[in-house]
Amino acid sequence: MVYTLCFILFVIGLYGVTCKKNIVKIILGFLIMEYSVNLFLILLGWRKNGVVPIVEPDTVMEYFKTMSVDPLPQAMVLISIVTGLGTLILMVALAIRLYQRYGTFDITEMNRLKK
Amino acid sequence: MTEFLVEFFLVFMVIGAIIALETKDLLSSVISVGAVGVAASICFLLLGAPDIASTQLVVEVLTVIILIKATIRHDLVTIDGDREFFGLTVTLAFLFVFSLFGLRAFWSLPEFGTPGIERISAAPSNNYISSGFKQTGSSNILTAILLDYRGLDTFAELCALFAGIWGALAIMRVRSRKKKTGNHDEKK
């Protein structure tokens, strides 16, 4: 059920990327896909009644070994989020350049090569 | 309880995503995506990942600020309608087939709440959890993985981030190259 909802979120983002005319909506579709993929990786590593992977002074190591959630996907997602910010800045810069050249965000109007 | 809360926030995210893509006003779309990101942050907090929740929150605020600053002052004209009919039909058919195959694949996954480290005892995560504190001295296992076990990965990812921002700066450069000899650009 949880995985299915996550996948529905991904498909909504894909719909935004493929079917929208406004370039800002396409960027938003990319963002939604990114959220869903990040969330899916974290969902895969979750353990029922799991504890946070941080060792505290009063932590019993035997209990911690068997109950901690998977820390490896978390490390990957942490960097993926930060890299997503970089790609977002790149996409927004391209969108602003296209707006300055064509005067609109509508991608069907960007057809100067045709004329 | 956690499953129910995560499902609730996922439904909230789906509704927010639909509103963000279908509403006419660009400012409303950007703010809806901000709401989706904050819901994702709460989900991370519920799933035992506080570091990611805080990172997601900060990045979300930056994302909304960048999108508003970049888009709102340029274009308040709404763009109606979808793409041409044939292309839209083909795309929707592709999305339908993709959803069918994807749902089939997702139903074959193991049940939610039983990660791979429970079934595979030789997974590297088990080593990180059991001896990460002893080997690296970091009480946060996430930091141990990021900066010690997989430090080269982190370095390469930061190089990718740097390249992305550098590319954005190159694209947004206002004045092109200084013309010292000849002026080809002015002839156009």
UniProtKB/TrEMBL annotation, chain A:
Q: Please, which domain of life does this record's source organism belong to? A: Bacteria
User: What membrane topology does the annotation report for this chain?
Assistant: Multi-pass membrane protein
> Where does this protein chiefly localize?
membrane
| Compartments where located | Cell membrane
Report the transmembrane regions from the record: 26-46, 75-96
Keyword tags: Cell membrane, Membrane, Transmembrane, Transmembrane helix
Instruction: Offer a single GO CC term for the protein.
Output: plasma membrane
Q: State whether keyword Membrane applies.
A: yes
Kindly indicate whether the keyword Coiled coil belongs to this entry.
no
One Pfam family this sequence matches: Oxidored_q2
Spell out the family assignment given in the record's similarity comment: Belongs to the CPA3 antiporters (TC 2.A.63) subunit C family.
Q: What is this protein called?
A: Na(+)/H(+) antiporter subunit C1
According to its UniProt entry, this protein's organism is candidate division TA06 bacterium ADurb.Bin131
TrEMBL record, chain B:
Primary location: membrane
Identify the keywords attached in UniProt to this record, alphabetized. Answer: Cell membrane, Membrane, Transmembrane, Transmembrane helix
Organism's domain of life?
Answer: Bacteria
Q: Where does it localize?
A: Cell membrane
Record-level GO cellular component terms: plasma membrane
Q: List the Pfam families.
A: MbhD
User: Its topology with respect to the membrane?
Assistant: Multi-pass membrane protein
Entry annotated with the keyword Magnesium: no
Q: Note whether Transmembrane helix occurs among the keywords.
A: yes
**Domain MrpA C-terminal/MbhD spans what residues?**
11-70
* InterPro entries given in the database record: CPA3_Na-H_Antiporter_A, MrpA_C/MbhD, Nuo/plastoQ_OxRdtase_6_NuoJ
State which residue ranges cross the membrane.
6-23, 30-47, 53-72, 84-107, 155-174
State the protein's name: Na(+)/H(+) antiporter subunit A1
**UniProt organism field:** candidate division TA06 bacterium ADurb.Bin131
Q: Which lineage ranks, top first, belong to the organism behind this chain?
A: Bacteria, Bacteria division TA06
Gene from which the chain derives: mnhA1
